[in-house]
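User: My collaborator sent over this chain with a note saying "see what the structure looks like." That's all I know about it. Can you take a look?
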Amino acid sequence: MHRNVRHGRIGWVRPGRVVSDDERGLLIFIARDSPVAHEVTEAGLGMRAMPFAEWITASYRLKLGRWDGPALLKFLPVGAAHSVWWFSDEQGRFSHWYVNLEEPGVRWDDGDVAGVDVIDQDLDVVVRPDRSWRWKDEEEFAERLAFPRHYWVTDERAVRAEGERVIARAEAGEFPFDGTWCDFAPPPDWVPPATLPPGWNRPPTR
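Assistant: Without extra context I'll predict from the sequence alone. Here is the result:
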């Protein structure tokens, strides 16, 4: 279970298959149409559907759904304050990298179900195959920083510095922006699970 946590609440949950888990980090695959959950208001609205000033005064619940985006690879480097995602097109061909800036993941293992909890820091970087790049969600990041008592990001400069370090590696074509896993194809039997497994919503580790 790859889970985002906000102030001790689960923000979203996505189930993944472990592709590799070694000294470099954890690599998971998330199939299209996988069961997911994400936090919404009691009215069923997501965080991006309203100003942050309204979101922080709402009541919340977790809504079940399906992952309607493309199949994803997600790499969580050991101890790093980011993950790198490989996006693919409709034909399953590599499209671009997505750098998700986040607090380092904390793992948990309950036996029948295991996972990693991160705190998504909202600011992201999109890296194209030619290693050109752009910041993503800067307006949302700035909007939320204006509410320091309620926002889960406490150090804007640290988040941007982490992004700049990853950008430098991307521009240099260093791992994982060196073509590694760009040709990944999941085995045919890696179909999405029908439902989230029992225990997916256990209390966050953070």
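A starting point for your reply to your collaborator: The two ends are 14 Å apart (CA to CA).
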